[in-house]
Amino acid sequence: MVSKRTSRDAGGKRKFLAIIDATPECGRAASYAARRAKSSGGAAVFLYVVESADFQHFLGVEKIMRAEAEAEANARLSKIAEEIRESVGIEPELVVREGKTDEEIHGIIEADREIAILVLASGNSTEGPGPLVSSVAGRAAAFPIPVTIVPATLTDEEIESLS
Questions:
Q1: Would strands 43-50 and 15-20 be described as parallel, antiparallel, or unpaired?
Q2: pTM, rounded to two decimals
Q3: Domain boundaries, given as residue ranges, for the chain
Q4: Measured on CA atoms in the order 83, 107, 42, 93, is the torsion positive or negative?
Q5: What pLDDT score does 143 carry?
Q6: How far apart are the C-alpha atoms of 163 and 161, rounded to whole Å?
């Protein structure tokens, strides 16, 4: 169960959450989330999760790996945010968290009660639609807020017209 959303309360702002990672489709999710936020007077939140399981090494190596992963996360978020500033004209909120992706998504949704929509984009590879979209498919309670999935086949113009 998720706590009550406050995006419709006085002074509240409906936020669209997009997950940023190394996949090519995450930019499409960010674009859709930002465009929906702008058209509805809301805000966009971009979350990058650094998987903590990757740091099971000796302490010195672990610190270096963690710093490199955080730098990569910030670089990826900055690149996507710059593209969004130029194409959409809004300033997204950027968040980096460390842990398991699904747990961190739940955590940010619970912590920020203005987040009302999770936006994912499907991939078009032969391996399937992508790990996050696959985790939602067939599981009604995967996330405690509505999930919008942007199809891989949509062009940039179609994304703009739909948002």
A1: parallel
A2: 0.86
A3: 15-139+153-162
A4: negative
A5: 78
A6: 6
